[in-house]
Structure prediction request, 155 residues.
Amino acid sequence: MSLVGKSVVRVDAASKAKGAVKYTDDLEFDGLYGKVVRSTVAHGNIVSITFDKSFDFSGFTIVDYRDIEGRNANVVLTDDQPFLAEKKVKFIGEPILLLAHRSRKMLKEAVENIHIEYELLEPVFTMQESLDCKNTLYGGDNIFKTIQTVKGIEP
Prediction:
């Protein structure tokens, strides 16, 4: 019996229409959930990080750059990118803090009760702005890496 070309009654249609179905994101599991607090500015110095006193942060594990053993560096081409920003952020979304808690809902609330104050610095958005070197993100000249290329050997 082929079902191709025929209408099929979905056994889960009624429960989905009623909103009764539980999806993976609706489930709570034993263990810890994690959340990353990220920068909201393209370029700036971190002036302060404050935790709202009206929110109970007990039961949370909060990690910043000082908790990283060894070098705070995510080395891909060079060690210019920290795992967690220390005093300066260079792009929107740069990781600043890590939070862990048993409840995903509480994590979301906690993030809303953490306030980061920035001293805004002029961002660099275009190649020309980078070449003008008014504001450097890398070294003194905004040149991330220089490589000499050599033509391959011809047969």
